[in-house]
Amino acid sequence: MLLIVCSSIFLITTLMGWGKLMENIFGKSLNGISGKILTGIFSVGLIFTAVSFFVPLNLYVEIPTILIGLFYFFKDKLYLEYFRLSKKDSIVLGILAAVILFSASFYPFILDHFGYYVPTIKWLTEYGLVKGISNLDLILGQMSVWHIFQAGFSNFADPFLRLNAVLLIIYGIYIVENKSWIQLIFIPVFLIFSQSPSPDLPVILFSLIILNEILSGNKNLAFLFAFSVFTFAIKPTVIWLPIFILLYSIFVSGFQYKKLILGSLVFLLFIVKNIWIFGYPVFPLTVFDLGISWKPNPELLKASSEFAIVKTFDEQYSYAEILKFSWFDYVKNWLFLNGIKSAINISFITSLIGFIVFSIIKRNKITSLICISILIKSLLILSFSAQYRFFIDVFFVVFFVVFFNSINKKNVLFISSGLALIFIGLFSFPKIVQQFIPSFKLGRNLTPFAKTQLLKPSDYKYNQYNSFKIGDLKFNVSKKYTFSFDTPTPAISESYVLDYQKLGIFPQPIDKNNLKKGFIWKKLNPEEKKELDKTIEFIKKSYLQTD
Q1: Which of 238, 250, 263 is nearest to 366 (CA)?
Q2: Which residues pair with 491 in a beta bridge?
Q3: Are 295 and 278 in contact (CB under 8 A)?
């Protein structure tokens, strides 16, 4: 916990300094302390993304970034701005920070932390963006801009990957500065994301901040559109946000194409990044096939698409069973899945219907545009893979818009305090979740409080793996464990090794002496097939062995 405090101080001051530097060059976009920090996140995130095409995001990138940020922080005496906060606001922020830091000190429990977040960050810090990395492990083809941003600060400032906790503190500063008290209710729920660099948190927070700016009368649409595209680049499931800003600029503020230039450049960077690592413009979609030589195997992509549909139904039905569903069966079975997912899905549809009715009654142009944007996003998600993690942001957006300025500070503080106590209790005594909500799979990974968390956040160490060689590729597979979160690169999940065997293919480096040059897939020759068979046999036998 104490070490997260140090990380928070380093990161907040660095980002605030970068925000001030950007304001000096391009002018002010957002107000206050939080405005500078958010501008810093936006600018540094884009710089890291551009730099990662050429070099790894290691100390040689991180140290200069920190020094530049600290230089402008002290040069322009930005620390004085904190003294302008009232005593009451400072107390609220202090309590918020303590709750956030305590929650962030627990062990990570989101499974993607081990199978996606950490492996992605390892590749970025060691190699940067690697061409065709999705051929090695398809999930690495996502490489969110948030993980690029995290990787750039993971060598020194934030080695425990608790950037989301820092972001929550920044969000708290924004709420207090802008007196947007309703958003305090969300923070206890967001504590779920404080232990891992999940991209879900920044896209929800940035969406709410941008909405608040629009509803509060911010007219800097050039920055808000660019920031919305940046949020989309973190996780494309938030596609409704840039659509909304675009519609707002056309139907409310008066369209000016110049306001879209910066956002268009951010979008172009996002597309180039995806083509470089995945071979297509948007992961995991295979539309707009540009014939890139390093794109993933089509059969592997097809299998991934089928699995996404199976995940839509929480793996409670096979793909063959789903294909036999009628339209009515598809909707019914999705709404009435076994367990907590059913409640989430029903709540989602209910929220959408309620928001449509609200926007009709409200007869407000901005609210209507938000509703249209949310509906567009929802239809896309429902047609692709209606997993709750793809539409979770809708709940917060709908609640925020419906109750905007409707709940006073006193009630908000009471509600958020109660929720915070509940979530801290669940983190500290996870058996409560495991006993009363057994269908909530993530609850099984929660662990109780340990005294060591007061010094440093809890973190898993495994580092057991076996090494193999197929063709020109020397790679590692985690031993008796599904994920490769601390397995040395290049690492491949055992599930993908099995998939490659079924398809008769295997990833190969473009240059065996330089992995930075990227990966392609190739058909296996008879000798390589024998080597792969031996590899899989060894992996299977390792599960039968006792240590």
Answers
A1: 250
A2: 476
A3: yes
pLDDT in tens, 417-475: 999 988 888 877 777 766 666 655 555 667 777 788 888 888 888 888 999 999 999 99
Q: What does 425-461 look like in DSSP terms, one character per residue?
A: HHHH-THHHHHH-TT-GGGGG-----GGGGTS-----
Both tokens of residue 166?
């820092």
For residue 514, is it left (φ>0), alpha (ψ between -120 and 50) or beta?
beta
Chain segment 316-352, per-residue pLDDT in tens: 888 889 888 888 888 899 898 888 888 888 999 999 9
Measured CA to CA, the distance from residue 231 to residue 42 in angstroms comes to 9
Give the chain's end-to-end CA distance (angstroms, integer). 34
Q: Is 53:276 a contact under the CB 8 Å cutoff?
A: yes
Place of tokens 């970025």: 124
Of 89, 88, 241, which is closest to residue 174 (Cα–Cα)? Answer: 89
Please state, in angstroms and rounded to a whole number, the distance separating the CA atoms of residues 330 and 324.
9
Q: Note whether 225 and 242 are within 8 A (CB).
A: yes
Q: Is 521 helix (H, G, I), strand (E, B) or coil?
A: strand
Separation between Cα atoms, residue 52 and residue 516, nearest integer Å = 11
- DSSP E strand stretches across 323-416: none
Neighbours of 258 (CB within 10 A): 8
CA distance 332 to 306: 20
Tell me, what amino acid is at 288? F
Rounded to whole angstroms, the Cα distance separating 156 from 378 reads 39
- Residues 6+ away with beta carbon under 8 Å from 332: none
pTM equals 0.93
